[in-house]
Amino acid sequence: MRFFILVDGGQTVEADETVFADWSARANRRIAHHQSGVVEVSTVFVGIDHRTFETSPARLFATTVLRDGRVGETWRHSSFDDARIGHLRICREVFGFVPDGTRP
Fold it and tell me: What does the buried/exposed string (b/e) look like for 4-36 if buried means 16 or more CB atoms within 10 Å of the residue's CB?
């Protein structure tokens, strides 16, 4: 299992398990969060590589839809920028708008 921490500017750095645990205990891992009624879209830095194939990029970020507090669909992202863009795309799918107020 590979661990990573998030540093300035959204860059990721591989770390050993102890460094990751220490960093994770005090870090704000939230990238974005939006809620409308009982539906939430939350994007976080996971920091544990969830890639499917060894040759694919590390999947270090996750966007999850929660409905009435229950975990629904989850998408994995490889970079900070991909996570932010993915969060907005999923907000548009779920809410019908992106958080800045523009309509799809």
Answer: bbbeeeeebeebeeeebeebbeeeeeebbebee
> In the block, which residue shows the tokens 């645990």?
21
Distances (CA, A) of 4 to 14, 58, 60, 63, 92: 4, 10, 8, 17, 29
Q: Is 63 exposed, middle or buried (0-12, 13-18, 19+ CB in 10 A)?
A: buried
Q: Would you place residue 8 in the very low, low, confident or very high pLDDT band (cuts 50, 70, 90)? A: confident
Answer yes or no: is pLDDT of 31 > 60: yes
Rounded Cα–Cα distance for residues 6 and 13 (Å): 7
Tokens (6 digits) for 85: 């863009």
Which of 84, 83, 63 lies closest to 75, judged by CA? 63
Quickly state the pLDDT bin for 104 (edges 50, 70, 90).
very low
pTM of the full structure: 0.88
